[in-house]
Design a protein that fits this description.
This protein is of the alpha/beta class and 287 residues long. The chain has one domain: Rossmann fold. The protein is built from eleven helices and seven strands. The strands form two sheets. It has a five-stranded parallel beta sheet with strand order 5-4-1-6-7, sandwiched between helices. A two-stranded antiparallel ribbon has the order 2-3. Helix 2 packs across helix 3, helix 2 packs antiparallel against helix 4 and helix 3 packs parallel to helix 6. The protein binds magnesium ion. Magnesium ion binds next to loops.
């Protein structure tokens, strides 16, 4: 039975409150076509909203700062413990979309009229270092460095024999601490990062993990089923913000795999229809 909350405040119409505050109403009434809009524009691309949000919104930046500020609180909590750990302190972080901003890649994908992740373009893009740091990331990792908390970078990429060098070069390009061979692990064949987690857990006191994909935290999230993946997330709800801190990523990841069965679905009309099916699965029927 759901909990019943009693209103502590006098009821007031939301519309009335907005108007009293000087807000104006949207102009749908004066623009009859806006509500009947059907997109037939050939330039349309299913990635536009997600990439524009990441590229422009202060809200995205604020969410990232929020995540790294919380991470800093966790580090402070550990540093302020009376009983100090005998093991050195450490955090583990993913790279792509956790510290590496990839909007120049996604913008290029859109300009190529592509709507799906393109592996060959990604492999071309990576060595170019057309990257910037995710907001708040460098500040947080520098804080770790200043407080003797080791940062271990773990990524899953494959650009051939130079994969490791490219990844290390990006850490150096962003001027991040601990950018060295001892603190970077690159998985070329698998997205399972748990062996590194287990290894660091033995040699260090692991304070926290950071990533944009729940699979960065636990392999349990490597599930090809949207509902089951969501259930596992609910099971772990108390661990978010405590053991794992998530950076928002609306363009790619294993949430895509849960829908399509693969993280890199084929570009096809059929897959766009499937995307629409998921986007509208709880849609109001208009009645
Ligand atoms: Mg990532």
């Amino acid at each position: 039975m759901s909990k019943q909350y009693k209103s502590k405040f006098k009821r007031r119409s939301i519309l009335g409150a907005l108007l009293a505050g000087g807000a104006s109403l949207p102009l749908y009434a004066n623009n009859p076509t806006s509500r009947d809009y059907v997109n037939t524009d050939a330039e349309s691309n299913s990635l536009l909203w997600a990439v524009a949000w990441k590229e422009t919104s202060a809200e995205y930046g604020a969410l990232c700062h929020q995540a790294f500020n919380l991470a800093r609180l966790k580090v402070d909590q550990e540093l302020n413990r009376k009983s100090k750990s005998k093991k050195p302190l450490a955090i583990i972080t993913d790279m792509d979309n956790t510290i590496i901003h990839a909007t120049s890649y996604w913008g290029h994908i859109i300009n190529q009229n592509k709507e799906f992740f393109d592996d060959s373009i990604w492999d071309e893009w990576v060595p170019k270092n057309l990257i910037k740091a995710i907001p708040g990331s460098k500040r947080f990792f520098d804080y770790c460095y200043d407080n003797d908390v080791e940062v271990f970078y773990v990524t899953n990429r494959d650009q051939g024999a130079k994969t490791f060098d490219y990844a290390l070069s990006q850490l150096n390009y962003l001027d991040l601490p601990f950018a060295d061979k001892e603190h970077l692990t690159v998985y070329r064949e698998s997205s399972n990062k748990m062996p590194t987690k287990n290894q660091i857990n033995q040699s260090h006191k692991l304070i926290l993990m950071l990533g944009d994909n729940l699979n960065d935290y636990k392999r349990d999230y490597y599930i090809k089923n949207v509902s089951q993946r969501y259930e596992v997330m609910e099971r772990d709800k108390d661990e978010y913000g405590d053991k794992f801190i998530l950076i928002p990523n609306p363009t790619d990841g294993h949430w895509v795999r849960a829908m399509f069965g693969t993280s890199e679905p084929e570009p096809s009309q059929e897959n766009l229809m499937l995307l629409k099916e998921y986007a509208t699965r709880s849609a109001w029927d208009g009645e």
